[in-house]
Structures are given as structure tokens and as C-alpha cells.
Amino acid sequence: MEREDFIRLAGQAGQTLLAQNDYSSEADVVALVSRLRSQGHDPATVAAVLTQAKLRKRAKVKFGEFADQMLFTEAGLEQASRLKVAALHAGRFRAAGIKQVADLGCGIGAEAMAMASLGIQVSAFEIDEVTAAVATYNLAPFDNVIVEIADVEQLDLSKFEALFFDPARRELHGPKKASAQRHFDPANFSPNYSFCLEHAVTKPTGIKLGPGHDKRQIPTECEAQWVSVNGDLVELGLWFGKVARENIARSALLIDSSGQHEITSTESDSPNAELAEIGSYVYEPDNSLIRSSLMADFAKPLGLTLISPEIAYLSSNEKISSPWLKGYQVIDNLVFDRKKLKAYVREHNIGILEIKKRGSDISPEELRKQLAPKGEGAATLIVTRVGDAHRVLVTQPIGD
Question: What InterPro entries is this protein classified in (predicted)?
Fold first, then answer.
């Protein structure tokens, strides 16, 4: 979003258009634009409002009904925490008895919103002017939040009781902010990752990172938590001081429609799960278990084993129901051969074909075209590596 677009959206004309029109339907956008312009609305304002309406629709996944009262930038929405996850962050601070938090790199204000709703006094800082303006708009209902434009690395952080860092992993400057590239190198984060760690050890602190963050860069003096929402791995949180839980070095947290599920460990690392032959059932574990290296902690009590080293499929001869697992009954275990596989699909009248892969460089889309499924049957093919051989598991999904 450009500065001029925010001014248009925050103005009376923009607010009126946002409030008076229903953009949730699949109405003809061209006809809608023509109608609004024929009513005398400024074309630039109409364009900004329609863009914002699209962002609000996408934001419902993270913010629910609150999205209808918020403004968003493309990059800000991408990096913003889901509100239910931000609420968990805020809950850590409240449980630790903390009254004041500096939200350092507040983005569009999701974390500050969650903390303020729990009565915590929040000082929110954002280096990008437009993003800070959007955060101010979103946080206007709260009188216990102050938003300021600032370079976090230039602030005196000693005056705050606790800190929360959400380092920007996108370049937010330049003419094409919305299409800016992610910053995978922690040295390029804003604020810098080393800066975050330097201050994290001085007081209660949370650092939100991408879930793929290199585990070798996680310090030993914190709790590391990987969070998954409905199977979507959304973040790695590092927690220091009073907001870290005692005797927990790592945890995997799964949030789904049935509630919250967690696997924890007192150790900073775990050996891999045991290896065994493929059984009658194969399971895809939640990605939070994989990234946190808690597969063995989860698998051993249930008698689950890996089908191959470094391949994150678990197996057993027993049907297991768990929110952490997506399970499949193994119908056939075949050598990966395209011609034989095409014949198999034809002979078994398979027309609906889901193709999954791990440890294989095949393209599921291209393989599906080559297999040309036709028929009334359905199957899920799992293309993977077992030892040095590529295998195809013909499976059927299992329910609870």
C-alpha cells in the first residue's frame, strides 16, 4: 500500500465506500467499478477500496470477523500472526504477571491487539510509515497502545518490562513493496536476529520467526515452540525469561477444531524415531513434529516407526487415530515404474488419483498426466524412497 492509498482509505470517502458496499460476493468486479465511478467516486479511491476488500476477505482466515474493521497491507497480512496464535503469545505475558510490553516490529498490529485486549500496556514500534499508520488504525479501539514510527535497533529497550520481536522477513522499502522478496538470512532481518537475541537474554522476551528457521541458530537458554494451525505450520516462537516455561526446551503445538495439542521435551534435541518395515498403515505427521525434531517423542509410545531415514512418514500395523496424524491404509507396495504404474491404474479402474511425494523429485502433476487415470475408483499414491529404492504406496485414506 502506498501512502496516498492509506490517506484515501482513512478519509471519509474511503470509509464510506468500505462500509456501504458488500464485496464478499462473486459480483462482476468490472460492473462494480463502473457503478461506483458513475456515482462520482474518485477512481483511485475505488481502486484502493477494492484492493482493501480483497485483503479483508483473505484476512478472515487469520482475524475472523475482526477483519471487516481492519486495514491491511499485502506484506503486513502475510507476516501477521493469526489472532488465536497472537492470543497465546499475549497469554504468556499475562501469566507471567507482566504489565508492559514493547512490540518491536508491530506490523499491522496483530500482536499488540491481542496484548492490549488482555489489559497489557503496549508500546508498538514499526519502521515503515504506512504500516505504522495501518497499525494505528487497527489499534484505535484500545487506549492502552501507543504506535510509533521508529527503527527498533535505535531504541533504548532498557525502559521496557518485556519485549516481543517480530523481525520483518520482507523488504518493505522501494516501489514494489507488495511483491518484495522474503529475507531468509537472519542477518537481513529487521531488526537483526543477533540484535533480538542480545536483548532477549536481558528480560522476558518472545521472538517470532518463520517455522523453517535453522535450528542450529536457536540458543539453548530459551523455549522453542513450533506452532501449527489446522495442519499449517505457521511459526517458530522463541521464549526467554519468565515467558518461557520451566523444564521445556522444545515443544510442538497443534491447534485445530478440537482444541490444542502439544508434545514437549526437556532436551534441546532428540534422536530420530526408530526405523522398521512398512506396515499396514502409513501416516503423515504434522509438520510441527517434524520441524521440532519431536518425532521420536511422539512415535515411540504409539509404536510408530519411520519407513526410511530422513523421510518423515511413520508406519505401523495398527490403525491409529490422532490429531497429529493423517493416515492411509496401504493397499499395495510397488516399485516405482511409470509404465507398470499406468497399467496398474488402468487395471484397477482408478479415476480419482491423489499423488503425494517425499524424498522423490517427481512432479505429481506430470505423473498424473502420464498415468491418465480414468474410471470410478479412487486412490492415493505415495511416492517415496525406502533405502536406495523409490517405491509407490497405493493407499486409501483412513478416517478417525
Answer: SAM-dependent_MTases_sf, Thump-like
Given 14, 48, 72, which residue is the final one in a domain?
72
Q: What is the pTM of this model?
A: 0.89
Q: Residue 18: phi, psi to the nearest 5?
A: -65, -35
Cis bond upstream, residue 191 (ω within 30): yes
- Note the pLDDT tens digit of each residue in 327-357: 999 999 999 999 999 999 999 999 999 999 9
Asked if 148 contacts 125 with a C-beta cutoff of 8 angstroms, the reply is yes
Domain end residue (candidates: 72, 107, 129): 72
Q: Is there a single domain that holds both residue 85 and residue 68?
A: no
- What's the maximum distance between 2 C-alpha atoms anywhere in the chain? 72
Are 144 and 242 part of one and the same domain?
Answer: yes
Residue with cell 522477513: 169
Residue 181's alpha-carbon distances to 148, 166, 170, 172, 258, in angstroms, are: 25, 17, 6, 9, 35
Identify the CA nearest to 395 among candidates 264, 305, 248, 280: 280
Q: The domain containing residue 167 runs over which residues?
A: 77-265
- Residue 274 forms part of a structural domain: no
